[in-house]
Amino acid sequence: MSTLVTYFSLGGTTAKIAKEFADSIGADVFEIKPATPYTEADVKYTNPVARCNKEQFSGKDIAVEGTVENFEQYDTVYVGFPIWYAGAPLVVRSFCKQYDWTGKNVCAFATSALSKIGKTAEKLEPCCKNASSVDAKLVFSAEDVKNW
Prior knowledge:
Elements: E1 2-7, H1 13-25, E2 28-31, E3 33-34, H2 51-58, E4 64-65, E5 74-82, H3 90-97, E6 105-111, H4 120-124, E7 133-138, H5 142-146
Parallel strand pairs: 1-2, 1-5, 5-6, 6-7
Antiparallel strand pairs: 3-4
């Protein structure tokens, strides 16, 4: 069995942490990308009609670009993302719903300068059905993830 580091990133912070962490432990990496990329206007949450707000309030799954090959080979999956609406972005939850998490340990690491981790794990758990465990931690560096 092996480890996979997945991540969703817009500003680059989560991507940097995920890649550095994966490199330090020799893990595979997969970038979670919406099939229709986000623009700056799409994620301007102060605009009530911005795409991110419409998606959040609709609760509908977001199409994700690509899939993880041989997902069954991983026993531990790290899922990185910025905190949106006090949890994982909808595109991350949509990604998670596509896979069989039976027996896998899920370690969600969130990046945010303003938000707390809150109930991120509890909100992500239903998307990772049958995972052995789902835990979440707020991180600021790859070293924070490695020390987890």
